[in-house]
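Lab notebook, bench 4. The sequencing result for the construct came back, and we need a structural model before the next group meeting so we can plan mutations. Quick request posted to the team channel:

Model the 3D structure of this chain.
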Amino acid sequence: MAAEEAVDGAEQSRYRPAELGPDLPAVQLAPQLAQFAAVARLEHVTQAAAMLGMPQPTLSRSVARLEEELGVALLARQGRTVRLTRAGRLLLASVERALAEVERGAEAAMAEADPSAGRVAFGFLHTMGTDAVPALLRDFRAAHPQVRFQLVQDYVGAMLERLLDGELDLCLVAPLPDDPAFAARPLDEQRLHLVVPADHRLAGRRRIRLAEVAEETFVGLEEGYGLRAITDGFCAEAGFVPRLAFEGEEAETLRGLVAAGLGVALLPPALVPRPGVVELEVTAPRTRRAIGLAWAAGRPLTPPVRAFRDFVLSRRGRLLEHD
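Done. Here's the predicted structure in token form:
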């Protein structure tokens, strides 16, 4: 993920982007460069015109205009054939590199939209990365084995920004965004348990009301994480503001802090039992978070992205089968 971004940055640093404007060379000359390259390669105007599928007089006028605009002779005409001048050879070297880059870029752009082998940039919550997302990818790839994925794990706010910037195509988020800039569909609900140390005074209970731990020290995710906002909301509903002693970026780290006796936490169920903690069902309020799929509203989706979106939406109610 990070490596791909680094490669893109290295590609861009190899050249200085051309200035664009109605009277600048890149804009004025670009339409004529491929025609000049065809003539230069074949050293024959008529053959080049046939290769390009255009009338020979039109091609001759195009190359003549190019020479006029540059103020230099590019071709030395010898009967029906032509030879490159020194200036023509200098220009051709750059033109060939530029045309190769254009071709490479066009192929890459078309590959992104290839229904069978395109790319999907998919973001998801850290808590979805252990089980739910691998299961989704495995099942989707069974029918679409050539589709490539760029996977990004991040907190909700950052992923939504990347959706708007076009860096991501789809995101699994919780809570769902309430913003017309996004399209979002609910997929499932996930229980959140109160996690307490194994020697905690409430560890022998199976169920608890959240208000019963109003005076406890909490550990939680940092501001900006969806689970942090959800936790704060449930605590407010129970009538208190949680006193946070530690803030982290990953749910399993918080579970470890609870096991060390540093606080309690509201977390999704652990996939593998964690020694040193007990998970209690919260009966009031109903501590569940809605998980859904989001994408940028109004932005066309490529065929592979649309196929994956439809597949994920078809798993509504079954996204968290392990839960």
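The longest helix spans residues 86-112.
Will bring this to the meeting.
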